[in-house]
């Protein structure tokens, strides 16, 4: 009998947690996110979003994607999204270094495989416990 009651309570708790799950998709300013945690992004690999102008491409290494998640518990959607955006941008920079590039151009949001190009905003999905950002961009060497 005790086990039946405990099992019923467990099932009810799990059902309630699913009922309260949320997934809010929003757009946030790139500039605010890039400066939200100081000088986190290295200056050796330039990042160009959307159709921002950039110097001439000398060599392309291909298009690469990143899909990062972070703990959003106890954080505002904006704070969690800014943090996970930086993680995604850092991963693109690391990929550029690995490939021998000095920039990532044409960076687009790709949340839930929906490409969105913007020079000012990125797309982020935030829930009660997790926030996520997906970016895609072309790793290149730009003329100095």
Automatic annotation (TrEMBL):
Residues 1-21 form the signal peptide. It comes from the Bacteria. Keywords: Signal. This is Excinuclease ABC subunit A.
